[in-house]
Design brief:
mainly beta
Length: 193
């Protein structure tokens, strides 16, 4: 009887140990995704102004990006005051009888703003760029008797495209509706490491 009991305990112990080892092995060795390497790139943007297909002006902007990474921004310009409301108040002033004018102002950004991100898809690179180029129309000015709000001219080029490192590509272009000029946003991507 002792032999039967010992054999039975041995079989149960072997069965228990053999069934629990694979479960332990699965729990103790979780599968982990291999980390993707981080690559750095430099993006060189050119904002080209053309007249009758001849380049007459070009502005250059550069930014370094890590992939995978967040969106990066280039922002250059001015904050321009715009009158949102104005009212007169009759109160004490330096000149008797002249009303004081109270004006409330809001500031708007005028200049160049480029926001971009890169994504790797195997060997291919996808660039997404949002750009806004704005300026004050030279015809808008302040009158001696009243505050005139400026006229802001704006060109937006937003787009996604596949890029090849070392080769330039035009992301987008737009004709100026008030002249025979065209604006192009061009980019060259260079792998840094």
């Amino acid at each position: 009887m002792r032999k039967i009991m010992a054999v039975w305990l041995f079989v149960v112990a072997v069965a228990f140990c053999s069934s629990s080892k694979p479960a332990e092995a699965q729990e103790s060795t979780p599968k982990t995704e291999p980390e993707k390497p981080v690559h750095a790139y430099r993006l060189d943007f050119s904002l080209n102004e053309l007249e009758e297909e001849k380049k007459i002006n070009s502005r250059h902007y550069s930014i370094n990006l890590d992939v995978p990474g967040d969106r990066q921004d280039i922002k250059i310009g001015s904050r321009v005051p715009v009158a949102t409301s104005s009212f007169s108040a009759n109160s004490v002033s330096s000149a008797p009888g002249s009303p004081l004018s109270n004006t409330q102002w809001q500031y708007i950004d005028v200049g160049t703003h480029i926001s971009c991100s890169l994504k790797e898809h195997g060997d291919a690179l996808e660039l997404h760029a949002d750009s806004e180029i704005s300026n004050i129309d030279a015809g808008s000015a302040r009158d001696n008797n009243a505050v005139l709000n400026p006229v802001v001219r704006q060109i937006k080029i937003d787009g996604s495209t596949l890029v090849v490192p070392g080769k330039s590509i035009v992301i987008g272009s737009a004709d100026d509706p008030t002249s025979n000029r065209q604006f192009q946003l061009e980019v060259t991507v260079t792998k840094l490491r």
